């Protein structure tokens, strides 16, 4: 029985690898993703490059337009010019549109791929057939995509409503302006983009729980990733039935949030330039917010530039780990990091197998998790070296900037605008790689891997 | 045929795992290694703690004695007091003895384990039997150990002779003193210990090729590891026959040496506090020396504290990678790093298998390589965070110090003595873990792994 099954898998794999739809016409999803994001960046750069997009009515430097467009499409949030003062309302709307397209693109693509890889909705054979007959717009697929879009719109509308009410009642903004601010920051928060319309990000709201908790919640939900959120919606009261993906994502999120909050409280409690002036509950709120944002919201309510360098290192680590798979978060993903811990633990005990819950982690997934992380470490180290050579800044700040770009995070110690042009190009490339790299890599590998699935059934999880 | 072989392997594994010699009496090599090194550190601390060991005739602070003993046994070279002025001749001789014991311990243990793991000398069944009958001192084993001891003595004597002649002819030292200096630095260099009898390490010899190249060569040979050196001695003219271990070690060493030299030349060429005042050939020599020492000699001829922070990052990376397996070098080892590059390259191409030369890298070895590296990254990050919290220094210098301790390297930007006591304890622990951690881990896993060897014959390589 098992033998026969193995053979059939191998056979299917052999057939598919040679099918013209997959190889011959170059329709590999990885290519689609790179081209899609690249084209969106180009369109965004052209739009932001017009005089219409700036308040002064002059064209921006092409690199400013490119950097901002990349930052928006990759939902990063790093900026070389102040968003509110440099860009006109048209420019801001271009940015929010790029964020929406970028965020939705990531969520739908990643969700789609995860559905295909995990084979949960039974798409496997059907999709394979569709791919070849080009009738991709089948019911299942359409269903998934619609749910992602509807879900993101509902979340953004809710967040926008809360923010709008607060801007009107708490800060006396006119309703029209409050709605605009609410929508902009709701989209920016839910898509983990981190763009804000104040030069100091959200520092003026540091002790306002309405703004801070709403934005933090939007960032968390957006960063969990659609598959996890949807599974939680269906089965949150039965953790025993959660998939490995959901368990690891939720567990690691809780762990990193708690650890981050404690670390920031410990090192910033008496810092007069950050938490010092706040009361205790204000400090709690600020520390929690600072712990949420590296995964990977990118807003800040404390002055990052004034933080202790140990806080920067904690933020670096949290940013590098990032958020959930198939969400709008960046980084190597909490899933990957969680797997790493399990793998290292197994390795330390000399165990071959890595069990999480009642599932065995496939060895290919283990290798992917380890490779993605190490590739990230190598990429960050090389980029940091280049920036150290071409800027006068210290490792502290340069590493922070590089990790922030790689993890599409958007936090900064304040040196982004000071970096020379070559550095901006490097950061743009890092944002692009950080955004689509792991996803594409994960995709390409996950899809390729299926063609060789000649082991016992295992739970497949995408790492990108 | 193959089936039968698999079964017998499994069976042997099953038997051995329950054999009283391995489990019941706790004679696992990992335990032996930890206890052995720990005991040597304790003896060293007691000896260095006596008034006899200091020039002033007072007892040193116990932590100074412990730190120095750990640094010597783990062949690291980090110091909290100046070796020549603080310690008496007796103290210096204790240090050189600890270096010799530590270095020899590492080389023999690692070589022994590698021989057992790779099964090259056909020890497998014999040793297994010996283990149980306690007749470990068999011919093969004794032969290997004697070769290691003789080889290290020949190397040290040669280096000492060259250095002695140079100290007499070039610097007018009396013959007795020159012999003492020659022996001390020969042992320190060949064992990659990095202890020097001048407060500025070897900075006074920066343009002296006799001293610099001799020491660099000793460091390189010691860091290659005995198995590689011996294989090179036998077959250096036939690279096609080299084992995977030798190929990767030699290749990565060349790559890292060339890359490091170029990087230092690029960033320090005009630095008035380092290479600036030297002529071109002096710069070449200094850059080469600076590129050799992170792997992991620990001497310096340039003022590390005055280097550009990008040079520090390059040094961090080189130190972290370290030297060859089963040598006196530290770090994750060039073998591990080389494997990582092959693994990531395979992963990027979506390949399951990793081929190096004409051999397939076992998946267990792949996981070990990846796990050791990531465990190193996590350990370094956590330790750096702790040191950042308890010291006023920047990430640049703290990271350098932590990586230097973890990689048992001994280079420093000059903050070692300024770090508070808790920091010295942390660095001592890091040196100990860095020294025996990967080795022990590699050992434990490599030996355990053999008990489950139910795949096709593959080339086994230890990563520690
Ligand atoms: K972001
Ligand atoms: K050393």
TrEMBL record, chains A, B:
- Keyword presence, Zinc-finger: no
* Membrane spanning residue stretches: 30-50, 62-81, 93-117, 148-172, 178-198, 210-230, 250-269, 317-348, 369-390, 425-447
Name the domain of life: Bacteria
An example GO BP is: metal ion transport
In this record, what's one Pfam family? TrkH
**In the record, what terms sit under GO molecular function?**
monoatomic cation transmembrane transporter activity
Record-linked InterPro entries:
Cat_transpt (IPR003445)
Q: Where in the cell is it found?
A: Cell membrane
How does the record say this protein sits in the membrane?
Multi-pass membrane protein
Q: What is this protein called?
A: Potassium uptake protein, TrkH family
